[in-house]
Amino acid sequence: MKQKERIPFLLLIGPAAVFTVLMTALPFVQVINMSLKDFIIGFQGVYIGLENYAVMLKDPVFWNGLRVTFELYFLSLFSQLLIGLYIAVLLHRKLKGSRFLRTILLSPFTMPPVAVGMMWLILLDPSFGPANYFLELIGLEKSLFLASPSLVIRTLAAIDTWQFTPFVVLILLGGLQTLPEEPYEAAEIDGATRRQRFFYITLPLLRPSIITATILRSIDLLRFFDTIYITTQGGPGTASTTLNIYAYNTGFVYFRMGYASALMITLMAVVLITVVFFNFLRKRQY
Amino acid sequence: MRNRKVLFVFLALIVLAMPIWAAGQQEAAGEAEASGEFDWKRYEGQEIHFLANNNPIGQLFQKYSAEFTELTGIEVTISLFAEQQYRQRLQTIMQAKSDEIDLYMSLVSREGDLYDKAGWYQDLYPMLNNSSLTSPDYDFADIGEGIVNASVFSGRLTGVPNNIEGPVLYYRSDILNELGIAPPKSLDELEAAVKKVKAAKPDMVPFASRGLAAAAPYTFSNFLHNMGGDYVGADGKSALSTPEALAAIELYARLQRDYGPPGVINYSYPQLTALNSNGQSVFNFQSSNEFGKIMESGERTKDTEIMALPPGPGGSTPVVIGWQLSISPHSERQELAWYFLQWATSKEMQVKLGLEGLAPPRTSVWESDEYIAWLAEEPVRQQWSEALTVLSQTGSSVLAPQIILQPETRKIIGEAVGSVTLNEATSQQAAQKADQLINVLIERSAAMQ
Amino acid sequence: MHHIGKARKAATYIQYLLISLLILVPVVWLVVSSFKPSSAVVSYPPVFKFTPIIDNYVQLFKNLPYMLYTLNSILIAGGSTILGLLLAVPAAFAVSWYKKSWPTSVALLARMAPGGLYLLPWYIIFSRLGINGTYLALILTHTVITMPLSLLIMASFFDELPRELMECGMVDGYSLGGVILKIAVPLSAPGMVVSTVLTFILSWNYFLFALVLSKIRTTPLTVAAFKFVGEGVTDWGMLMAAATVLAIPPLVITFFAQKWLVQGLTYGAVKG
């Protein structure tokens, strides 16, 4: 950048930068500092170097948390991309009424997570939830949903899919609408089937949009917190204790703030690595 | 620090033309007046902030707080939060040594050691013994000595006990009569009864108790004690792998798994109370505090009876605990908070709470005409009161290893029992894993002494 | 696009309908249940026919200070939206004009941290500054999440503007600030709408910071709803009403701003 440009640039980003540094960098440094201490809320912390991180590697609940986090992550991301792609293609047909559907699509992900959590808590209640009524109506057995350790992750993934697939749809739809016409025209001349057109033209061209959606969803899904905090608080047992929930409980429910800080830093590193990886995938194409 | 403040304020000023809440500094309390009459109006016009758990106790204080304001002229703001959120707020406030709250509810049997070591309890003895601050009618000695002692740590009074409670066995006597089952006199008989109920009444829930990990030790401990087990062995280590403890885990898990409601693993008092009050559960082992709610509709008063959990091979040691009211050492309105505390734990207030189904720790309340008359109105009230007497005379408040980091051990215990309930592990596997995790916390707590 | 046959058209419509139902039924159930008495909410099989009552809402607004909570939510969400925009617009212009991407990366980085990370440090800092629990403190914390979003959205909208227009402006003697205010912002009006609406909703919905950092007088709706969540659940009808009160404003705003939102989201905003 030229010297002449540097000053207006700094002036423009200055307020935002100062704000970000004050509000986030400072706490961040404090949390790194806490993660190096044996620090119980209410007590004087003692520096113990990287001991918290060493303990973490031997902590079965941490590994369980990592497994739960990634199970939930892959399950949710996969279904959201798949269903999202399907709906986006469907909407791209631009029939009358597709605008109406697009409006509806906005509602789930603009709803407050607290309200969404409360809503599903009742819909899926094992004893009086209407979801079970519906299952019985079509001849299936009642389900425990969130109260079952083997179903809880799938149920949470389904709730998140309900809420955020529409968001993915809108991003992918944006991608679809900017696709060039020429490859399709060429394909038509070559007599390609619809399926071939989709797999050999649409999908590759849509890659940047898919990766954008993946990155945005990854950031939220790896830190999965809101819905769990409201519905199961990590239970039954530790079946839905994601890393974020584990870190939160360790610090704010069970006082071990030093260890909780180490967990949070680790989680942030996991998110960062994932985002950098997908960013690398996106850039590689060009 | 100052620069940052300037920046924050500056940012705010350019953006916001809205009022900023600034809590007015309260003036320090004046010197006590020398007059003989106790002056309830001494702090008229001031206000205090009370952080409470949204359980029946917190809810009742909210219901009656207007009476306190009428008596003293002190405005009370009560922040009611669900248990987890209330604790999380309290911790943050205390860690920051903030004067945001003046008094709060605390479960001394769970967190007493930790809060005391961390210095979160103000010693109440100086205010209690100050005749200008304590009404002559207060009669502190009326609160049972044993109960008070649970709140005393190295000679400091960390709070005033506000209720006594514990899990009691509610059961549908009409169903038992119909099936010809006598009220169980032992844990074996309980299991046999539950089995019969299941066979005869497939639509009902034969047995319900807490399954939610962090809450389950409240009910499980009674089973552990009665089976002859304990949380900590003679060697000072976690003792969930002893034959007695394993038997207790298996029994509790079996009752939950085979005779409990679907999804019992997430059950705590709200779900249990729902089952209890709509009459769906035949045996319901849960908090005595929920009595008022269960009987509210009037439908259960005639068909429900109450007793303490029957004894097992290890005899009978019920669980008895109590919430206390504590004052924050960082509060700048401690005397006002003490006024509220006095009012809340006074004889008059405790009678009122008693009539709502909260067992009072004051002896005089149990002997008051009003309370006795209330109990006499319904046999089930009498039974409730008798069960509580058994609890308070023979009970133990050991719900987990008695260490500073006890709260987390409770969750580990609950998870161990839960994993057996769910058939995810054998009792040996679950106990072994829990022992290992708890021993780490025992060592960790010892290092904090 | 390509011509679509009749049968395929019908099939598409059926799929549209199914998707709409899947999205709408839970929400409609929530809203309808909030007009049921508690016992009807938890009855099984579910009650479909009932006389609607407004008791749940009356209780919320009469026995609990829900008016105050609503006002608090508006103040916090509104304040953080405005502050976020004020900080983000110049920064977004700089990012777009000087083709620098690191500020957006940094903004994204701040979003990657788990929310719990900030709670304790903020509480301690705000206590020392004596602004704990004030609207100011809550607005500042919420701006941490609104500002990066505004920055991302506005930067992508500014990217779409023809450079020549702004260069003309500079030739005409506008300062850089003048170019932003008089040319870039008016031309990106849809972007401003999208960014305002989305950040307002984001801030309205966020609960974790206020859960710990608000005081009783500054409690927003999200946190007030926690009285009905978790172990203490007793009144299901009121829970449904509380969730509805919380969810309605974002839904209404979304509905009215849908034209810009769909465009913004599909074309510009999250192009990344």
Span between termini of chain C: 26 Å
What would the CATH topology of chain A be?
A: MetI-like fold
What's the architecture of chain C, going by CATH? Orthogonal Bundle
Which two chains touch over the largest interface?
A-C, 93 and 92 residues
> What is the total tally of β strands of chain C?
0
The proportion of residues in beta strands of chain A is under 5%
Rounded radius of gyration of chain A (Å): 23 Å
Treating each run of at least 4 consecutive H or I residues as one helix, how many helices of chain A? Answer: 13
Could you list the spans of chain C in which at least 5 consecutive residues all have pLDDT below 50?
A: 268-272
**CATH homologous superfamily title of chain A:** MetI-like
CATH fold descriptor of chain C: MetI-like fold
Write a concise keyword list for the protein shown above.
heterotrimer, A: 286 residues, mainly alpha, MetI-like fold, 13 helices, 2 strands, globular, C: 272 residues, flat, disordered C terminus
Describe the protein.
The complex is a heterotrimer of chains A (286), B (449) and C (272). Chain A is mainly α and 286 residues long. Chain A has a two-stranded antiparallel sheet. In chain A, helix 1 packs across helix 13 and helix 10 runs antiparallel to helix 13. Chain A is globular and about 75 Å long. Chain A has helices spanning 3-35, 51-57, 60-91, 98-110, 113-123, 130-137, 152-177, 182-190, 194-205, 207-222, 226-231, 243-253, 257-284, and strands at 37-38, 46-47. The mean pLDDT of chain A is 89. Chain B has 2 domains: 44-164 and 322-376, D-Maltodextrin-Binding Protein, domain 2; 167-320 and 395-448, 3-Layer(aba) Sandwich (D-Maltodextrin-Binding Protein, domain 2). Helices cover 48% and strands 11% of the residues of chain B. Chain B is built from 19 helices and 11 strands. In chain B, the strands form 3 sheets. Chain B has a 5-stranded mixed β-sheet. Chain B has a 4-stranded mixed β-sheet with strand order 8-9-7-10. A two-stranded antiparallel ribbon of chain B has the order 4-5. The radius of gyration of chain B is 24 Å and the shape is globular. Chain C has one domain (61-269): MetI-like fold (Orthogonal Bundle), CATH 1.10.3720.10. Chain C has helices at 6-33, 38-41, 55-62, 66-97, 102-112, 116-129, 135-160, 163-171, 176-187, 189-205, 208-213, 221-224, 236-256, 258-269. Chains in contact: A-B, A-C, B-C. The interface between A and B is medium-sized, with 29 and 38 residues.
